[in-house]
Design brief:
Length: 143
């Protein structure tokens, strides 16, 4: 049974739904989201695409990496643990006051530095993987 927060997918895989979203935008936002998706996949060929929260593209690897939302004036990539990531090239330009998330808002005509963005994706994955490893370590036995 699907929860209220999950969109009806008609059995389609998330990757198909994301492709359909990109195509339906039909303007600079679709092109931007497609480019960012390709960069995510280049940074991590094992990334898992999901479709959550009323139709939001989500990329995961050992946990949530980021979401990709489209609004009238921006394409927003929100990094779940962005506040914990180093961002030496200052890609994060939105949600800077939060304790956990950070976002990159991309406006029409703007282009995100591909190398820096892929480094940020890899850093998010490393953070997720480190967190998963620390949760799965066996507890020392007390004798």
């Amino acid at each position: 049974m699907k929860t209220k927060t999950q969109p009806k997918t008609d059995g389609k895989p998330a990757s198909t739904l994301i492709s359909e979203r990109i195509a339906s935008l039909g303007d600079w936002r679709g092109k931007t989201l497609a480019r960012m998706r390709a960069l995510i996949q280049e940074a991590d060929p094992e990334v898992v695409e999901e479709w959550k929260w009323m139709g939001t593209p989500v990329w995961e690897h050992d946990g949530l990496i980021c979401t990709g939302e489209s609004y009238k004036a921006v394409v927003k990539l929100t990094f779940h643990k962005g506040a914990s990531l180093k961002d030496p090239t200052k890609l994060f330009n939105s949600s800077l006051d939060g304790n956990a998330r950070r976002a990159i808002d991309i406006r029409e005509g703007e282009e995100v530095d591909a190398k820096a963005f892929k480094a940020l994706i890899r850093a998010a994955i490393a953070l997720n993987t480190a967190g998963k490893a620390s949760r799965t370590k066996p507890q020392a036995q007390v004798t």
